[in-house]
């Protein structure tokens, strides 16, 4: 394995950790992909299948989720 492979593997780990943190903050522990909304509850945009699987129970698209989190912290 070369350095490029190692770097992208590390990036994938960081991304997975970030998604887990997001689920914890949003109170989505124990949810499954089936609990995820197909359409964003805020803007009505389609929630990508990858996001529904990686953030089980999510109800918003990435944009609205981040906006909601920023609002919550402000
Ligand atoms: Zn949205």
Topology of this structure?
Layout: H1 3-25, H2 49-54, H3 62-73
The structure holds zinc ion (ZN).
Zinc ion (ZN) binds at residues 40, 42-43, 45, 60-61, 63-64.
* Tally of separate helices: 3
Summarize the amount of helix as a percent range: 55-70%
Distinct small-molecule ligands in the complex: zinc ion
Order of helices and strands: HHH
What percentage of amino acids are in beta strands? under 5%
Which class best fits the helix and strand makeup? Answer: mainly alpha
Q: In total, how many beta strands?
A: 0
Task: Tell me the span between the first and last alpha carbons.
Answer: 43 Å
Average pLDDT reading: 89
Low-confidence stretches: none
Radius of gyration: 14 Å
Overall spatial form: elongated
Major sheet attributes: none
Instruction: Give the domain tally.
Output: 1
Word description of this protein:
This protein has helices at residues 3-25, 49-54, 62-73. It is an all-alpha fold and 74 residues long. The protein has one domain. The protein is elongated and about 45 Å long. The mean pLDDT is 89. Zinc ion (ZN) binds next to helix 3.
Which keywords apply here?
74 residues
Quick summary:
The protein has 74 residues and is mainly alpha-helical. The protein is built from three helices and no strands. It has one domain.
């Amino acid at each position: 394995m070369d350095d490029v492979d190692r770097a992208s593997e590390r990036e994938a780990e960081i991304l997975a950790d970030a998604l887990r943190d997001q689920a914890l903050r949003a109170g989505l522990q124990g949810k499954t992909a089936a609990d995820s909304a197909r359409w964003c509850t805020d803007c009505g945009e389609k929630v990508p299948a990858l996001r529904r699987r990686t953030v089980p129970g999510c109800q918003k698209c990435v944009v609205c989720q981040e906006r909601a989190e920023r609002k919550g912290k402000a």
